[in-house]
């Protein structure tokens, strides 16, 4: 499993696919599949059987995972998509924006 440079709570922009150019916050990262669920993006309609929690059943809209290669972290300073470097500061590894050199 590779080390991912995105975390839950990061603001990202979709750089490829159907939702290209849209932005959102990461809700969950699926490390084993190299995918992330982004708030309000890649909405799918899922057919749900009636159950105790949902007695009516029906069609539910929910976010589907997007591959992390199609996501770019947004630089907090310039508000543009940026790549991420990992540097060591005070003996601790931190993520740094490549565009503004600012700690994420």
UniProtKB/TrEMBL annotation:
Q: Which PANTHER family match?
A: MITOCHONDRIAL RIBOSOMAL PROTEIN L24
Q: Which gene encodes it?
A: rplX
Where is it found, in Gene Ontology cellular component terms?
Answer: ribonucleoprotein complex; ribosome
Task: Family membership, please give it.
Answer: Belongs to the universal ribosomal protein uL24 family.
Q: What are the recorded Gene Ontology BP terms? A: translation
One Pfam annotation reads KOW
Limits of the KOW domain: 5-32
Question: How does the record describe its quaternary structure?
Answer: Part of the 50S ribosomal subunit.
Write down what this protein is called: Large ribosomal subunit protein uL24
Asked whether the UniProt record includes rRNA-binding among its keywords, one would answer: yes
What is the annotated role of this protein in its UniProt record?
One of two assembly initiator proteins, it binds directly to the 5'-end of the 23S rRNA, where it nucleates assembly of the 50S subunit.
GO MF annotation: an example: structural constituent of ribosome
> Which Gene3D superfamilies does this UniProt record tie to the protein?
2.30.30.30
Q: Which domain of life is it from?
A: Bacteria
Its keywords, alphabetically, are: Ribonucleoprotein, Ribosomal protein, RNA-binding, rRNA-binding
């Amino acid at each position: 499993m590779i080390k991912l440079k995105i975390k839950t709570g990061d603001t990202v922009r979709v750089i490829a696919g159907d939702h290209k150019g849209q932005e959102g916050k990461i809700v969950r990262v699926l490390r084993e599949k190299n995918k992330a669920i982004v708030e309000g993006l890649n909405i799918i309609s899922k057919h749900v059987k009636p159950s105790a929690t949902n007695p009516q059943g029906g069609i539910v809209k929910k976010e589907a995972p997007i591959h992390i290669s199609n996501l770019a972290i947004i630089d907090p300073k310039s508000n543009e998509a940026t790549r991420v470097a990992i540097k060591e500061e005070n003996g601790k590894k931190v993520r740094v924006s490549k565009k503004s050199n600012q700690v994420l």
